[in-house]
Amino acid sequence: MSSPSDQTRRTIILTALATAVHASAPRSAAAEEDAPGSDLRPQKADVLVFAEGDRAGEVIKPQDLKPGGPAVRAWPKDPKTSVVRKGSRLNEVVVVKLDPAELDDSTRPRSADGIVAYSAICSHAGCPITAWVKAAQGEKDVLKCVCHNSEFDPRQSAQVVFGPAPRRLAALPLAIADGSLTVAGTFVGKAGAQQGG
Amino acid sequence: MTMKQWLLPSLFASTCLFSIAAGAGPIENYSPVTADRLKNPEPGNWMLYRRTYDGQGYSPLDRINTSNVKNLVPVWTFSTGVVEGHQSPPIVNNGAMFITTPQGQVIALNAKTGDEYWRYKRQLPDDLFQLHPTNRGVGLWQDKLYLATTDDHVVALDAKTGKVLWDTKVQDYRKGQYLTLMPLIVDGKVIVGGSGGEFGVRGYVVAFDADTGKELWRTFTIPGPGEPGHETWSGDDWKTGGAPAWMTGNYDVETRTIYWGTGNAAPWPGETHPGDNLYSTSVLALDPDNGKIKSYFQYHQNDSWDWDEVDAPMLVDLQRDGRTIKSLIHPGRNAIFWVLERKPEGIKYVAGWPFVYTDVWKGIEPSGKPIVDPAHKPGIGKRVEFCPSLWGGKDWPSAAYSQNTRLVYVPANENFCGGFTGEKLPLVPGQLWLGTKPEDIGLKVRPGATHFGELQAWDPATGKKVWSHNFPKSHLFGSVTVTAGDLVLVGGTNDRMFRAFHAKTGELLWEQKTNSGIVGMPVAYEVDGTQYIAVQSGWGVDAQRIQDALATQNNVGVENNVPQGGVVWVFAVKK
Ligand code: FES
Fold first, then answer.
1. A166 and A76 share a domain?
2. Where in the sequence is the domain holding A105, given as residue range(s)?
């Protein structure tokens, strides 16, 4: 088999892993983690920067996100001090641009131009959310933690739609200011796993 | 009582609650565990991971046997209140039972009544990334217990009260280091091996002083510069090459040698770490006094399949080829049933044969080196399929050996294949590093498969399969225990059953549905002349992942609906 079809791809993801799963958010150097404010949870007026890839560290603008996904992993950054809040993995978020008409009533007010953000740390055992794939049930793409296959629907406040996760991902309200994505409030809900990891 | 007087004790009580929940109170008359007791455990106790140092998973108790097992009934249960995979054996020492749960809890129970004495709850860090949220049990020494934690500490508890006596950090959990195994206790040393092969760590086995928690020695499973075997690695690969040692070792009391299994090389595709990669996917013979590597045997070279070989081989005196062989027996994740010999000059290959279907090996050289079919060896930039799957023919759940029947009982998985596309990816400390994207990993059922899980009975003297029991709708992911009553006890299936088979014939003699699925290890013990069988039911971790995978395969008819939540089940024969 050369490259898996969509159907196979879905199966493959659900298959999950024998001893491991994927994660890719880079950890910063110790010095950066120690910078004052780096382990503070995302704060109002923070900007978001790419967490990985060629543009890691660059501020995310709405036009950088493709409608319908994929989801992008991001860190909050204090625009005044330029400190990226990488000091705790609990600060990492996933950002995805959706059709605003698809968002439910509690999700829409936290979105900006259809863009929503959630904690990237799975509420089950604390793995990172790494996949944007077709749901196990239904045709929509969802946020997925491949550690134990939990799926979260970003259109409905990231409620759990599959897998062992006990609760939704914490939501991060967004706004657009000066052409950049900014944080409009603190996390709604608890970022992190159900019990110490 | 003044307000202040009232406040102080209540504050103290609530502080205590964070580490030790109140139970009925301390264990009275605890039996201290000595070196002699561990070497020759009383038949009614289960104080080591596999009951005895040889790792056979055999109980000499026979009051519950093939003729009365049909009358086995639950006598008490205990709900742990914890979800995820409950993988530890209930450890029993003269009427006191100790179980562990995911998230690092230890619960002390009265083994006869199920009454709780005390509970230790570890407070894990909020930012912990628990890839394998589980624990495989406490080690015992004198009047202390030892717990290895997923945030990479070893903790000593007072066996009578659960009070923390010492707490030693092993390495940094933020770098992907973690512990899930039951510590091996040898002559006052607490010996553990690290998990984290998926994070690009350098594997190790480490010993601590049981009284103080002070580190005594640490042996890396990947040799550093100047050490023998270092030449089997290229460049700096040895620093991040995996070979974790995340399961409890076994111990040869006579020669004072520990046998410890090691995991796969990292990342997965062999092309990313050229060479044989000692001592990944091996068994190491270690000196318990100083950790020195006396000998080794590598089950396969340049691992490319994620085939951990961490389950330590069983030590068995085997009658084979007209002589007694001091053997090591290991049904491997790599699908080969290995018979090795513990010779004074080192570990030697005796025989090997596939116990499930595999397309990876074309044979085994006389030295014991398996011959790989390159068409089924994952590499960079190409998708490669191989059988068995990543989970192998038998994963970490233990096989058992009966001193009565002289057979080996294997929790095997048949008809699973898998594959992935290898990729060169940068290592970021603390983040997973597989050498592939999860989107590219697959598990497939072989066309025409009629079953998945297979409980097998092998004669290691002849290499013949004596019987097998097939599970048409489930994989088999649970450790096996065998008793002198000729009962083979195992859970491991997704129908929540706990079962007893006839050790000689494979006949299913008894089964009981439990609250969840069983990935825990069954044990047999005795209190006041009554024999009990105990096991934890609590589905999760890899058993659940395989189930998810099966549930998404067309025409297999498997649902992923096993409820979670841990319960200790204890059975006895109804009189
Ligand atoms: S940690 Fe995400 S599903 Fe388990």
1. yes
2. 47-183
